[in-house]
Amino acid sequence: MREAKLIAARMLTPEVRELTVDAGPGFVFEPGQWVSFRIPQSTEDRVARAYSIASPPRQDGTFLVAVTRVEGGPGSNFLHTIEPGEPLAMLGPEGLFTLHKPERPILMVATGTGVSPFRSILLAYEQLPETLLLFGHRTEQDLLYREDFVAIEQRRGSFRYIPTLSRGGPEWPGRRGYVQSHVPEMVRMLGGDCDVYVCGLNKMIQQVRGVLKNDLGIPRQRIHSERYD
Ligand SMILES: Cc1cc2nc3c(=O)[nH]c(=O)nc-3n(C[C@H](O)[C@H](O)[C@H](O)COP(=O)(O)OP(=O)(O)OC[C@H]3O[C@@H](n4cnc5c(N)ncnc54)[C@H](O)[C@@H]3O)c2cc1C
User: Fold this and answer.
1) Which domain holds residue 113?
2) Which end of the chain has fewer CB atoms surrounding its CB within 10 Å, N or C?
3) Domain for residue 193, yes or no?
4) Separation of 68 CA from ligand 1 center, angstroms?
5) Of the residues 62, 94, 126, which one is the last residue of a structural domain?
6) Which DSSP category does 215 fall into?
7) Which regions of the chain does DSSP assign to beta strands (E)?
8) Ligand 1 centre and the CA of 229: distance in Å?
């Protein structure tokens, strides 16, 4: 267990709080990895919860996580109330949801805070093959880190950010519906052959995997996923 400290916090959307954590200069990780925080107030013994790192590696050992508040959930509620300056016990980094040798176009699919590892990867690696980030959420105000992805899109011709809303208002000009319904078109836009990275809740991941394997014939070895539940 490493003694880290919360040094800043802000709300990214009405449900998501971003934490800046200082784990000290010796802390190194690979973009796409996660850490787990000990949740002290829990009635269960020694509960820990995992969070993907949303920032690229930094020299000083600080990093960002984005936490969705889950009704009644001990981990997310603790992380939504802890104040800057307070200690945070953590383990990690861990996880294999890192970029595999990029040899073909990349499709990233995320919902909610599942977009965090992709933010880390996209900010860490300037040179990537053609990449599409398909991001699903409910409403426009839920699109966390939208301005960052739009900025990456503006400076890199090889990257596109494609949000889709399941409950977009009448003024929303973009795509609508769940991510899985847009996956076939994304794969076509990438020429039919791509590596796919999927991150979020398991139900979405299973549906995206089903479309990729059964409808589009993408081999299993090209599909990488990280499930949050
Ligand atoms: C590898 C990994 C990385 C993760 N990274 C993140 C992250 O970057 N940000 C983050 O917010 N969560 C992340 N999670 C989920 C996180 O670990 C907790 O499960 C979540 O915060 C809920 O914990 P809780 O104690 O508040 O609620 P619990 O009572 O433990 O969980 C209640 C239910 O909440 C649902 N849930 C879990 N995560 C989410 C979510 N993100 N959005 C909506 N519903 C959810 C699940 O259905 C779960 O069964 C990650 C999980 C894993 C395994």
Assistant:
1) 106-227
2) C
3) yes
4) 7
5) 94
6) I
7) 2-13, 16-22, 34-39, 47-52, 62-68, 87-94, 106-111, 131-137, 159-165, 175-176, 195-200, 223-227
8) 6
Q: Name the token pair of 202.
A: 């398991």
Query: Per-residue confidence of the chain (229 residues) as pLDDT tens digits?
Result: 899 999 999 999 999 999 999 999 889 999 999 999 999 865 656 689 999 999 999 999 999 999 999 999 999 999 999 999 999 999 999 999 999 988 999 999 999 999 999 999 999 999 999 999 999 999 999 999 999 999 999 999 999 999 999 999 999 999 999 999 999 999 999 999 999 999 999 999 999 999 999 999 999 999 999 999 9
pTM given for the model: 0.97
Helix intervals (H) in the chain: 74-81, 116-124, 146-155, 179-189, 202-210
Please report whether residue 101 resides in a domain: no
Assess whether the C-beta atom of 49 lies below 6 angstroms from ligand 1. yes
The CA–CA distances, whole Å, from 208 to 143, 153, 185 equal 20, 24, 13
CA-nearest residue, atom 53 of ligand 1: 228
* Sign of the four-CA dihedral 203, 208, 212, 214: positive
Beta bridge partners of 111: 136
